[in-house]
Design goal:
This protein is α/β, with parallel strands linked by helices. The protein has two domains: 2-126 and 305-358, NAD(P)-binding Rossmann-like Domain (Rossmann fold), CATH 3.40.50.720; 130-303, Rossmann fold (3-Layer(aba) Sandwich). Helix content is 36%, strand content 17%. It contains twelve helices and 15 strands. The strands form two sheets. It has an eight-stranded mixed beta sheet with strand order 3-2-1-4-5-6-14-15, sandwiched between helices. Helix 2 (47-52) links the parallel strand 2 (32-36) and strand 3 (56-58). It is globular, with a radius of gyration of 21 Å.
Amino acid sequence: MLVGIPKEIKPQENRVGLTPAGVRQLVGHGHRVLVETHAGEGSGLSNDEYAAAGAILVDSADDLWAQADMVWKVKEPIAAEYPRLRAGQILYTYLHLAPDRPQTDALVASGCVAFAYETIDVGGTLPLLAPMSEVAGRLSVQAGAHCLEKHQGGRGVLLGGVPGVLPGEVVVIGGGIVGRNAAAMAVGLGADVTVMDINTDVLRRFDDLYRGRIKTLYSSAHNLELALSRADLVIGAVLVPGARAPSLVKRAHLSLMKPGAAIVDVAVDQGGCVETTHATTHANPTYIVDGIVHYAVANMPGAVARTSTFALTNATLPYGIKLANLGWKDAIASDSALRSGLNVRLGRVTYAAVAAAHNLPYEEA
């Protein structure tokens, strides 16, 4: 199969779909790999490294998309890339379609076969989403700490405090992979941390692991309001796989929060779990609503592109090789995980949550 690795063109996205080591693996399986020149520069990966791994370097993105049987990316195609998609072409990347009707319509209209990293399910886990969730969870506290600085519009609170001064209070809404990593970073900084979830087994694991260093709280409406009133930093870490994130924090809740408190909504890729968040970029990551600093960068891991690219390749490579080796039809027939990742096929939506989000016909994968 001819696999294409284009340069990401979403603003401030410095990751790349595959490392040179990943290219070498694909070539070793007998595939040809096209890599757009300079595709890896944002991750510190040179053209020479890709060439040495067996890639064919291509100067034109249009040529790469036109030739490739399978396009292997990081982020969803943006509007400038929609015309490059074609019928039968495999698209293998993050998609986050539930909150994105224009992209959904473009994929359907193109007739491509689109696999979403974030819905590839292995026994209830999402192994291709996990590494970027780990990165985003860890970054969320780093970003939130910066948002709390006075010159960013924040309260001027140091999360870890100092001797004689109480630490900042961090509330993490959602105890999944993002939440676990956010909580670990916040505890490491010395913050006062509360994790909220509706699954008491999840909360029990935090109790068992941290032995009182993290407080746990069931995520009811009453408890959420109580936690928000105390928080200096709120991390939105809610995930419903493949579906739009539930909007748990409403605008009215902001009046309960301390002036200059901060919200980092990691769920923004799926529409956000805070009513007042909208996607931002690394160039302009924050804005203020009702005195609360909001950070909602839709591609947080792009800030640490080298780490993220290597972690993502580790996760995507086995499934990508299977797609290339078998073709999409035999791959989904033999692998239920890849079948769960199929979101759009030849003009039809094949992921139920996406079809429901946009009121579109659903066809089983």
